Structure prediction request, 165 residues.
Amino acid sequence: MRHPKPDPVRAGQESVWDYPRPPRVERVAARVTVDLGGQRIVDTDDVVRVLETSHPPVYYLPVDAFVAGALRPAAGSSWCEFKGQASYFDVVGGAVERPKAAWGYPSPSAGYADLIGRVAVYAGPMDACTLAGETVTPQPGGFYGGWVSAAIAGPFKGGPGSMGW
Prediction:
């Protein structure tokens, strides 16, 4: 399948087509919040992101930043060719539970040690996820967990016709 044409990059934006493959992990100087069930379940500025070609960034937050009981280990796992084996969590806020709405890499592959003790959250099942005060939208398609903000230009992998990118 042919690659899409990158969207124009406006002032203050990054293009996901300039992100590397294999992915890179980097610290982010931004506050992240996650709300579920009418409750703020995380509010932290201890944030790292994973950048990978054609994907919006995935934000990893410290497990310890979540309110008590917000993360419950879930059955199952998946494999990333770069980061290794992922474990899943059900996310709980208020009286709401979202199955397998977060994941992490407890023993990641070489080069991804900064992900130890952190989890990423799918934005779609949450009430709201914010990055530096902006409410993000989920990466298209529901499979990948990137967060789309005004700071990035696409198009983004995950939507119809993007599987071969």
